[in-house]
Design goal:
The protein has 343 residues and is α/β, with parallel strands linked by helices. The chain is 56% helix and 10% strand. The radius of gyration is 27 Å and the shape is elongated.
Length: 343
Amino acid sequence: MYEKFYEFTAMPFQLTPDSRFFFGSKGHSRAIAHLIYGLSQGEGFIIVTGEVGAGKTTLVERLWAELDRDTYTLARINTTQVAAEDLFRLTMSAFGIATQGIDKATLMRSFQEMLRAYAAGGRRCLLVVDEAQNLSLPALEELRMLSNVTFEGGQTALQTILLGQPQFRRKLASPDLDQLRQRVLASYHLGPLSEEETRAYIEYRLHAVGWTNNPTFTDGAFAAIYHHTGGVPRRVNRLCSRVLLYGSLEEVHNITGPMVDNTAAELQRDLEGGTPQSGSDLAAGIAEAISETDGRDTYTLEQRGNYAELTRRIQALEDAVARRERVFQRLMDMFSGFNAGRQ
């Protein structure tokens, strides 16, 4: 929607991981280096952890975009809250092996034959498991057992990349996973972007879709975006997308700090399922404050402060309501035009 108003070639802040928008921050560049080093070893596990939305999946998308498709076969698992044997079957399915009605021993033989055939053709198999923090200890042990498949000369047939949230590192510390830890060749924790990197990240994604400084972003807007997102890429994408949506609906060509602040507050309320305090609640607050004066014409400093705060909150409520009405009307106008064009 907003990409047409600002004449972008695509949506710059979509939440779906896309290697085209990979931004090589210091942390992401180091993470890629760890992945490449781990792959060069040809065996074992590679671990990348980070907060939700830090860019772990995008990292793997970027890696896969750079790998030789004639050399690697990639399989992915995203559902990890499963029992150990279910994880085993998910792995088989991810590599294209039919599993329904087939016992585990037979599946294992099929898996080994597949790995041997790929190896004979000069291909390496790579398994990527996302949300690894949800894996049980038996499930992790199942992955370790799969990594033990070797051929003549000790050649390892499978490498595994585990992506997880920070708590996954605590799970790995379990004494029961000592053998798995010994097979970890590379490990990296992906932190958030710095304030400077956050600005560069935003500009990078905008330039990727043909941004010509329309809209412009003030220094205060960039600072506000970092303040509200902490430099976590997915949060940045979500906030910037909402800011640009409101900007396009209100036909704004300059994004400012207050605009970002207001949008972030509305987004937070939407995510938490809350609503601004109603006008009746504020009126009740004013009535209560007035009653405290007992009809006197003089007020304490505290009471004056209460009046000022209530006035500010009323104004904020009125501004928010007016803004939502404008946005709603713009949306209705756009949908009306769209429907008219189809008839």
